[in-house]
Structures are given as C-alpha cells and as structure tokens.
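Readers of this paper often ask what the protein records in our data store actually look like. Below, we set out a record of this kind in full and without editing:
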Amino acid sequence: MSNPSNNINKTSNLPGLTLKQNLKGSAGHTFEIIGTSEKLKQTLSIVDRVAPTNASILILGESGTGKELIARRIHALSDRSGASFIAINCGAITESLLESELFGHEKGAFTGAVNAKKGLVEAADGGTLFLDEIGEMPLSLQAKLLRFLQEGDFYRVGGKDSIHVNVRILSATNRDLESEVRNGKFREDLYYRLNTISVKSPALRDRKEDLGALMEYFSPGILSVLTPETSDCLLRHPWPGNIRELQNTVERMRVLSGGNMITPQELPPSIRNPLAHKKELKFNEIPPVEMSLEDLERLHILRCLEHFHGNKTRAAQSLKITIKTLYNKLHRYGILDKSEANL
C-alpha cells in the first residue's frame, strides 16, 4: 500500500494517525493505546494516576474495547512491572475448573488431579492478576475470592495448608455489577472490594475520531486506499464489537481488496448495509427482508446477550447452544479474540 501521508485526504474522510503511546511490559512486549479522542484521554488520565498505587481497580466497558490493554498499562506503570502479569477470563472456564485454575490443587484432589498444580494466584505472586469478565464468576467462588482479597492467603483445592502471596488484583466486566448486586447475583462485599477505583473503557462508537488511527495501526497505509463511500460506511457503523470488530474488518478489507482501492463491496454486509445491523430493532419487530441469514443470527445473538445483560452462560442456555459455541460465534463477529474463543 502507498504511503498514507501523501494520499490520505484525497480518498478518505477518516482522521489520520495522530497518537501512539508505547509502554514496555516486563517481558519486553509493547502495549500500544491508539487515539486522541477526549474519551480516551480522560480514561488514560485516570489510569496513569492510579497505576502506581496498589489499589484494586475495576475496569468497566463493553466487550472488545481493550479492557485487558488498560490492565496491562496499569501493570506496566506500577512497581510490579518487573513481575508477572497474568490474565484469566472468568467467563470462558467452567465453574468446576475455575477454582482450580485460580487457586491450584493438590494431587488427588479430584479425578484427573494426578499431580499438584500451582494456580494463577500463586503464579502471579509479586505481580498482577487480571480477572476478566469477573461478573461471570459463580457466587460460590466469589466467597473464596473475597477471603483471599481480605486475608492475602488461600488454600489449593484439596489442600490443608494456607498459602500467602502478594498479588494486585485488577478486574473487568461488561456487565452492570451494581444491578447484579441488587439482584443477588454478585456479592456486595466483593463488589466494593474490587471497586476501590473504577475506570471506564470507552466504546468505539464514542470515539470515532480514533477510527483512522486504529486502522492505520492494524494495517499501515490502508486509509490511502479507501474510497469516500467506504469511509462513510465505516463512520456510520455503530461498531457493537468495538476495536476487535474493527480489527477483523480491516483484515477482511485488506485481504479482499488485493491491494486495490477498497470499495464498500469489501465490507461485511452488516457495515455495508446499515439495516442489516439495526441494533435498535425491538424484540417483537420483524427484521428487514434483505437481511442475510448470517446477519440475522448475529443480530439475534447480540440481542439475546443484551437481554441477559451480558451474561453469556444464560444467553447460551436460552439459545440452546454450548458456551463454547457462543464464544466461537462471538469471535467470528469480532467481539471476542481467538484466545477467548478457544475454550
């Protein structure tokens, strides 16, 4: 692709690349947060102030907005940056396995436990443990997590000796935990323990001025080969899958265009035709005739998730599919990344 600095304003209505903030992690990885929007600046201002503390931080925001990237930034700017950053998706692991993943187990603790195993809490000693989708954690395990947060020690599954570690807990959710607390689905004491400070990761539709910068990051030079019609479609789209959906869309455009100008034909139908992804449709409304079967399935799954306030387990049960199938579909829609989809 050609250099976007020469052609960007001739073919695209999208703003160009204007800000890239690099932070080196403990393992030499670079974590980049892209954009200049006020929403993003406000979030990063809070993040940079609270990162050097040991406070528990709850990161709020929709799926695909980069909550783990914010957590990694907090870790990279803290005194723990030289130690491990370990992340776990609490919604992608069954209840029976989640406790063992977090706290480890002793040999013979259950069928298949042929050896003792350290949990992620133990592995993160001295560093940071990021609990993604904390709202999906079952109540029975919430009590054990609360005890660990209060005491700093825990027991492996099947163990009799307490283990003490020094771990900073960061958590994230796309659900309204205050509502979950009121409905008895999340422990109030755990909520306040996790929510010493909350940070909001803004949705992409609220920071569309960063679209161009993000697209250039995913595929340098892409703005110079967008037709104005394509740019208009991208700007109109509400991006329910946020940055992950954008990344998948950029990859699709790059592959289908074959290095030529990118027209609306290279866009997914839900972006090319706004009616095919009209999230405002009410549950009793009939979808438009021109909606494809794939887009109809996508819309129904997203509406089901919205109905259950982001609870993927309940959504999967309602849809009569397995949680693994739901995660794989959400990955295909650009709402989850591959590591989360592969249970």
